[in-house]
Write a structure and sequence with these properties.
The protein is mainly α. The protein has a domain of 27 residues. The chain contains two helices and no strands. The termini are far apart.
Amino acid sequence: KKPFISAINKSKQLAWAIEKRHWTLEDWKKIVWTDELTFLQIQKSRWERV
C-alpha cells in the first residue's frame, strides 16, 4: 500500500523537481538514492562532510 502524501509534501516534491529539471545525467549520477534512512550524527569539534 502506498503511504499518504500530504498536500504540503506534494508541493515540496514538485518544487524540488522543478528546481532540478535542467540537471544533466552527470548531475544525477552524484545523487545517492535510498529508501528512508535514520542515522545519528554526533557533533564533533571539527567540520565533517556528511
